[in-house]
Amino acid sequence: MQGNRLAADIGGTFTDVVLETPVQRFTTKVLTTPQAPELGVLQGIEVVLKEAGVKPTEISNFIHGTTLATNALIERKGAVTAFVTTGGFRDILEMGYEKRFEQYDVFMDKPPALVPRPLRFTVTERISGNGAVLQKLDEAELRGVAQQIKASGATAIAIGFMHAYAYPQHERRAREILAAELPEVTICISAEVCPEMREYERFSTTTANAYVRPLMAGYLMRLKDKLHEQGMDCPLFLMMSGGGLTTLDQAARFPIRLVESGPAGGAILAARVAAECKLDHVLCYDMGGTTAKICLIDDGVPERARLFEVARIYRNMKGSGLPVRIPVIELVEIGAGGGSIARVDAMGRVTVGPDSAGSDPGPACYSLGGTKPTVTDANIAIGRIDGDRFAGGKIKLDKSKAEAALREHVGTPLKLDQHWPAAAVTEIVDENMANAARVHAIERGKVIGRYTMVAFGGSAPLHAGRLAQKLGLGRVVIPRGAGVGSAIGFLRAPIAFEVVRSARVVIDLADIATVNAMLKAMKDEAVAVVETAVPVDSLREQRIVDVRYVGQGHELRVEVPNKVLGKDDMIKLRESFEAQYRQIYGMTLQDINVETVTWSVTVSTPDEAVVPSRASPKAAAPKPMGSRTVYEPGLGRPVEMPVYWRFDLSPGAPIAGPAVIAEDETTTIVPSGFTAALNDLGYIVMESTAS
After folding, report:
1. Which residues contact 690 (CB under 8 A, 6 or more apart)?
2. pLDDT in tens, 304-356
3. CA distance 170 to 430
4. pLDDT tens, position by position, 590-606
5. What distance in Å separates the CA atoms of residue 359 and residue 488, rounded to the nearest whole number?
6. Residue 460: is its pLDDT beyond 60?
7. Which of 58, 99, 261, 615 has the highest CB neighbour count under 10 A?
8. Alpha carbons 85 and 98: distance in angstroms, whole number
9. Which pLDDT does position 676 carry in this prediction?
10. Strand partners, 282
11. Which residues are registered as beta bridge partners of 342?
């Protein structure tokens, strides 16, 4: 895709907009407008188009990612949703996995079900696991349920029947009946949203999709209309949580696939930086205004998963959120962004987040009504941020208000003065992120000290050096445009669509013809979606299957060759599974059959070509544009740091830390014990001087 390309990423605090022309990139950050998110997007677009001298009619395509669906789930601000399921299974959404996520907390509260019990309805129907119709769908009963739903005021319906992932005929007929009875109501069926085994996760994903679909469809259509009014009739693509792009129509049908679109764009950018800089192991660190995210990338490929939890309510603990089964890039996310609120708890400890001041009212230093101290307030108070040049000078920060908020809420309770309240906040944030990164790596059997950090997002370069010190990392890369990194990642993402089917097949007894027919049908379905946006002659295909020993409850993912499968290929699938199993568990079970559970086929456009970095000749050390006093945690005291303007630096020119490298959308802090220099791609590369 060539020409003038736009990307916009709506975050909790800032909306980032990027315009790439064939010769130059233009970027801006504007405050997110929570009540009408499209207004912030349009404001940012106006800024970059004016700066570039490009007309709206000259845009070739527009790529968008948003946290709107995620925020609706977290804040429970979606549609009033009803759930229709098989008789006897009304409370699946509340029963969940039937286990406690915190075994020893007697006061533990489970997260409330997305659909309350009065809005959960059952109907007589039942199809067995092998497709036999045990009870026909009672259509008269369903029409009665429709009248109850109408009286409830629900504007969205999720339908989830037992075994519908493989035998969807009852769900489809139920949709026809309910659509005729309730023509104004949004209806989602699990056979389309999540055609996979495990009814709790399937039902949860379907209800979540129905819950946010009216909101997301309305927003996307309003945005499309606003762009059309400005003369921008180019294709509009949406970033998905799995790292690919989808069309507007598909995004409106399946908005649940957008829940982690911003972090996915960041991971795509980090993977590209890894390829350009020839890095085998990368720790992707994305810190924005509301959250911080970490993802591990090995051999240029981000880790991926098929299960994700939204809106964890209990100390970010696994199991305390809403499970959604969608393609997602595997990452850890904590409430530690620039807008995260700091406080002193009842035990006299400084805590930060997970709640955020967002863009309204924002940190205290924004002078928009915020009175509670945030990470951004702490960073300006210790000198890391220049209040006159924040966001390219578009937002003026008031340092005195930041210091006053920190003094009132942190300094006075702990009897701290001078720079110490702000230093305490920034150290806690960095330690929280370091702990999350360590746990994320250990859970995956990775040695985190072997990784190179790629840091981006408006806040990450401020903290990356200190985080690297805490994790024992020897190298940090800050790419160009780091402050709007996720939006840049959108422009690097392929257009893709994944089709998933649950099909239990014992590998040694497989009907290979049936498997091949299923894979072909899945590919055809994915191609039909992608070809609405791009020609089909340059697509690539990836096949993955989840495999386990018969009787086990968890699977390992194995890649499937892109060809008509034969008997030898099925044998190789078992061998690949057992090699993984042996690596993880140290053994295999030779007397147990191996079976497949879920198959996926992803069709996508090829990745853009990568231009690798080359060694830069040594250059003379640049002269700083000035200096300012900044607290340096490695030294435990404020120091006078030279300040350099990033775009005045020449590749290969070394800068010894501690130092500050400023640019419009962010600021990089080079800590003591590190040196920094630009490489030939214009990326800041910080390296530890420790032997």
Report:
1. 474, 673
2. 887 887 766 665 567 777 888 888 888 877 777 888 889 998 889 988 877 78
3. 52
4. 889 999 998 999 988 88
5. 22
6. yes
7. 261
8. 19
9. 92
10. 297, 452
11. 352
Q: Kindly state the DSSP code that residue 411 receives in the 8-state scheme.
A: I
451 Cβ contact list (under 8 Å, min separation 6): 281, 282, 283, 296, 441, 473
Other C-beta atoms lying within 10 Å of the C-beta of residue 625? 12
Mean pLDDT rounded to a whole number for the chain: 88
Average pLDDT over residues 577-592: 88
Q: pLDDT, tens digit, for every residue of 373-429?
A: 999 999 999 999 888 877 667 778 888 999 999 999 988 998 988 889 999 999 999
Measure the CA–CA gap between 536 and 672, rounded to whole angstroms.
52
Q: How far apart are the first and last CA of the chain?
A: 45
| Tokens at 467, concatenated | 């985080």
The sign of the torsion formed by the CA atoms of 34, 38, 41, 46 equals negative
Judge contact between 497 and 240, C-beta under 8 A.
no
Angle at 182 (CA atoms; ends 179, 184), nearest 5 degrees: 95
- Report the C-alpha gap between 455 and 462 in whole angstroms: 10
* CA neighbours closer than 13 Å in the CB half-sphere of residue 72: 26
Strand partners, 288: none
Residues contacting residue 281 through CB under 8 Å, at least 6 positions apart: 296, 297, 298, 446, 450, 451, 452
Could you tell me the two tokens for 140? 């008269």
Please report the DSSP string for 68-99 in residue order: HHHHHHHHT-S--EEEEEETT-TTHHHHTTSS
Task: Write the DSSP assignment of 129-190 as a string of letters.
Answer: TTS-EEE---HHHHHHHHHHHHHHT--EEEEE-TTTTT--HHHHHHHHHHHHH-TTSEEEEH
How high is the pLDDT of residue 446?
84
| pTM given for the model | 0.84
DSSP 478-506: E-TTGGGHHHHHHHHPPBEEEEEEEEEEE
Q: Which two tokens stand for residue 409?
A: 């809420």
In the chain the domains, ranked by start, together with CATH numbers, are 1-66 (3.30.420.40), 74-216 (3.40.50), 261-336+429-492 (3.30.420.40), 340-426 (no CATH), 496-604 (3.30.1490)
The pLDDT of residue 322 = 82
Place of tokens 């969608």: 326
- All residues at 6 or more sequence positions from 582 whose CB lies less than 8 Å from its CB, including other chains: 588
Question: Bridge-partner residues for 687, per DSSP?
Answer: 475, 675
Query: Angle at Cα 283 formed by Cα 277 and Cα 284, nearest 5°?
Result: 85
Would the pLDDT of 615 be above 80?
no
Write the pLDDT tens digit of every residue in 16-30: 899 999 888 898 888
